[in-house]
# Entry
Amino acid sequence: MNISPEIISMIEKMMYKKIDIRFIRRTITDWGKVLVLLLDEAAVLLLVIAALRFFGIGIPLPITIVIALILGIFVFVMHVAVISSFHKRTVTGSEGMVGAQGRVVKLLNPVGAIFVEGERWRAISVDDNIDVDENVEIVEVDGLTLRVKRKDGS
# Structure
């Protein structure tokens, strides 16, 4: 059997390709978290089954197995869907304010006040004057003063 030189070259490149050890470690950690969460769910399921048997509520074994498999698959899929949230960066503080939207409660001429996420803030308009009840977007946080611009489409 003859293998073309292009295929051999491609296989050699794949064999010598540098594997990012951090990616592998992160993947193993993620699946470890999912496994721990699944074991927790399995323990609860076994506890429920044991309690039903203890109180004399008989569920045939095949039905128990089918229900356990369906619930197990559902819980597994839900946990796998959560893996991406393990790596989301938590944004708090002033960095979390940038991009947030608010409503003007005191005319921005250019200094006024806006209402953002249930709180009243001192704001400075980077645009022209902005009237009351117009929507604004935060572009910068300077201490306890927000720099805002008129929200597109308001």
Observations:
- The two ends are 69 Å apart (CA to CA).
